[in-house]
Amino acid sequence: MRIDVLTIFPAYLDALDLSLVGKARRDGLLDLRVHDLRAWTTDRHRTVDDTPFGGGAGMVMRPDIWGKALDDVLATGSVPAPATETPAVGLDHPAPAAAVTLTPAPRQVLLVPTPSGERFTQAMAEDLARADQLVLACGRYEGIDARVAEHYGASSSVEVREVSLGDYVLNGGEVAALVIVEAVARLLPGVLGNPDSLVEESHGAAGLLEYPVYTKPPVWAGLEVPEVLTSGHHGKVARWRRDQALVGTARRRPDMVAALDPHQLDRADRVVLAGQGWFVPAGGRPARVTVRHGRAEDAAALAELAAFTFPLACPPHMAVQDIQAFISEHLTSAHFDAYLADAARYQVLTAESADGVLVGYTLTVLPLSADEPPYADDVAALVTARPAAELSKVYVLPDYQGSGVAGVLLEATAADLAVRVVDGVAPAALWLGTNKANRRAQRSYQRAGFTVVGTRRFRVGDSLEEDLVMVRDLRAGEAAEVGETTGPTSGTR
Ligand code: ADE
């Protein structure tokens, strides 16, 4: 590849003699030429700028000087790429007088670094690495006369791209040229010693930031390398790295999470994203769900959601009147008033979609003392850890089922329990009863870290149902407080 940089400060680009780019130049993989723009001036002072038409501060770079320089540099780079094709010669193809040489026009790209350009990205670097010649025009002062980009943009043989490194202003295009040359050059075949380094790096095909990396010593400043990395278990290492990439991207670049292709996200990915407050709606890209503590004014909406979702979780054999009886006994607006008023006994968390719709909630019954057993004897015998909290309800609107909202709520519930200290101890276990027939719910609880410990009897109206009792060990993962307006920030399983 040929790269030409035009600048009034050629020495700025001396750094391109160093490291991998310098080696690529010496190895002949990159033909990089740095030119002093003033070489194209004709006056005694070698002037490249003048005052702006229309007034204003600063100076503008003259189009005539740039025009001469760019014409020359583009002309020397327009020598066709060496792609020669000789037609077959045989009985049906008598030899022509002279072999025909097909000469595809070289792809020449004029790059003008400017804070008002399109954002320079890895995808753009990958595209530019396929060009034959890049010409970087480094402006200074207030920039280059706008007719330069317009003139070359109108030419069919040159592509013009005005590019910005980011939303800040540099003194000129030289630093941007250094960045662009380095980002492009390392993608050229043969430049990186180990091309595998390109596969998983940040801003690559996965659309995620890269996972954290570690080397020797295994303990430094009291900090240990994560155990999984020394386990030798390649599958676990790969999963851990993917989890870290998802968590880091969710924390630092939510815009990248929102742009992830849902088809590239497996179940484990969705659980991790749920832990960061993201769900994946059916047929859509990841979206953020806001989890917060329920407030008194939520009672009516919660009762409405409960009355709508509770019947959907009941097995088909259950009589409608039994289901209705359960709702009137436990899930009316008045019941939610009571739950919301008694924060020591009940934890209510709500999940709202980005457009403010209540899409799910959890209701958890908290222990009031460290040794308080679960209220029913059959459960108390099965759930032995203390203090133990009961996840009494976790309901999500049908459109959001399977999207990860329930996961977001469960992680937020677990994270919030870690700070619900009773008698100096945070709850050690979260247990729940779920109808034996509801396999979908059981699978989703299993994914969220619950395991089956036995069965219990549970009354819905006049119907006595058999539930599975499942428990999640709350001491197993890290946890953090649930904020008023944001999703959980805790660990994920
Ligand atoms: N020149 C000045 N500021 C710049 C930026 N942010 N990106 C690219 N070129 C620039």
TrEMBL record:
Q: Which organism is it from?
A: Georgenia yuyongxinii
What protein family does this chain belong to? Answer: Belongs to the RNA methyltransferase TrmD family.
Record-listed E.C. numbers: 2.1.1.228
Major localization listed first in the record, in broad terms = cytoplasm
InterPro entries, per database record? Acyl_CoA_acyltransferase, Alpha/beta_knot_MTases, GNAT_dom, tRNA_m1G_MeTrfase_C_sf, tRNA_m1G_MeTrfase_TrmD, tRNA_m1G_MTases_N, tRNA_MeTrfase_TRMD/TRM10
**Residues noted as binding S-adenosyl-L-methionine in the record, renumbered to the chain:** 139, 165-170
**PANTHER family, alphabetized:** TRNA (GUANINE-N(1)-)-METHYLTRANSFERASE
Primary role: Specifically methylates guanosine-37 in various tRNAs.
Q: What is this protein called?
A: tRNA (guanine-N(1)-)-methyltransferase
What UniProt keywords apply to this chain's record, in alphabetical order? Cytoplasm, Methyltransferase, S-adenosyl-L-methionine, Transferase, tRNA processing
